[in-house]
Design brief:
Layout (H helix, E strand, L loop, with lengths): L12 H14 L2 H19 L12 H22 L3 H19 L38 H5 L8
């Protein structure tokens, strides 16, 4: 389908070039970065098979790459976006959780939150004991028993 002006003719190369130049003057690099993040998250969700009918498109390597790309770009525009950055962070978190559930592995980016155990490579570091709190193997705590605490996979 070709673009036509109101007189019914296709735009000339000069007119197309002028429109392109006008768009380049208007658009900002931040706009392109935000659009790229949104595209990565949308495509990552599709490659995770999250949208109905996309289960056959599942490609966890692509999901991981989408997560890593979005994680790398988000800090570049977070300050400019202000509170709106939270929407992108939430979508990224959801994609990371889906990846972790589908792959059975730790989601990309989550490794910074844990330190590996020296005896077992890749194992999460044990939580330090806190006075007055039950040991981690003591069973579910009151928030989990009441159903108010969300636990992945439960």
């Amino acid at each position: 389908m070709s673009q036509q002006d109101p007189q019914g003719r296709a735009p000339t190369e000069e007119e197309l070039r002028a429109a392109y130049e006008a768009e380049l003057k208007r658009i900002r690099v931040d706009d392109v970065i935000v659009q790229t993040i949104v595209s990565l998250l949308n495509l990552g969700g599709r490659r995770a098979g999250l949208a109905p009918g996309t289960e056959g498109e599942r490609d966890l390597a692509q999901v991981r790459q989408a997560i890593e790309g979005a994680r790398a770009l988000l800090p570049l525009v977070a300050a400019e976006l202000g509170p709106e950055a939270g929407t992108l962070r939430d979508a990224l978190s959801q994609l990371q959780m889906a990846y972790a559930q589908l792959s059975g592995q730790q989601a990309p980016g989550a490794e910074e939150a844990q330190q590996p155990d020296a005896e077992q490579p890749g194992a999460p570091a044990p939580e330090p004991e806190r006075p007055g709190e039950p040991a981690p193997d003591a069973g579910p705590g009151p928030a989990q028993r009441s159903g108010r605490l969300w636990v992945p996979g439960q």
